[in-house]
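Notebook entry, structure prediction.
Reason for the run: the old model in the group folder had no record of what sequence produced it. Starting over properly, with the input documented here first.
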Amino acid sequence: MALPDGYSARPHTLADAQAVCDLVAATERVDAGEVAIELEDIQGDWARGSFDLATQSIGVWSGGRLVAAAEVFKGRRADAGVHPEHRGRGLGTWLAGWVEDRARTSGSKLVGQTVPGGSGPEEFLRARGYREGWTSWVLRLPAGAVIEPQPLPGGCALRDFTGGEDGRAAFQLIEDAFSEWPDREPSTFADWAPRGPLRPGFEPWQIRFVTDSTGTDVGVCYTILAGETGYVDAIAVRADQRGLGLARALLVDAFARARERGARGSELSTDSRTGALGLYEHVGMEVTQTWRHWMTDL
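New structure, fully documented this time:
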């Protein structure tokens, strides 16, 4: 399918990061009701070891302005969007075709994207024949909410990130826990680190471990400070240590540490594969957004 007249397409280059961030912000403002993207998110994603900007990304330009873009990571996870001012001109259909062709070329049998519930992109994917997968929720701890300390079981303790091998220790705890989810591709440290301890602006306080009575790391929490919001990007507890209150202790600790650094509220996201929604609501978080993953067989 050819692009409409007046548009051209090419893969992204590193110099396009700000333009992509601006485009995503424009789509989030309309589709999700608020902007969450940061430039560091784009830079971190593009630095992943398995991501090739030249073959896994595309941007659609109108003159010197980026008006649509898409990426496909590992042939499975797509992220595509069209600027609200340029919708209804066939750009979304063109991007969807590019996404599906790129995923198919990489050998993938399935590709999908997570989009805000009730949004234009969701209606587009449904009309294209995509089927619904899992549901995701964004939850927020309201500004001024009381953060009650969570006692740890005897012998357990919280410890700080100290560099060195701590990055790999955090990754392994997260990877082991998240690998229990259905329909999740395994990750690598090279893919995770640019979004974790190698993310631009990272500070050691953002990663916090919980140890057992032997001093072994059995849980971890990774928090990002985005403006006045502390975003809990990942929280994981080793399977044999669950049910002891460790995740709740890490979560409450993350809220307090973000607040100490200027956060007025805290957020995180979870989905229907984890069964963790009740935990987050129990500590006072409230659902603010609902997203759904839509996918299609290739």
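Summary: The longest helix spans residues 17-31.
The old model has been moved to the deprecated folder.
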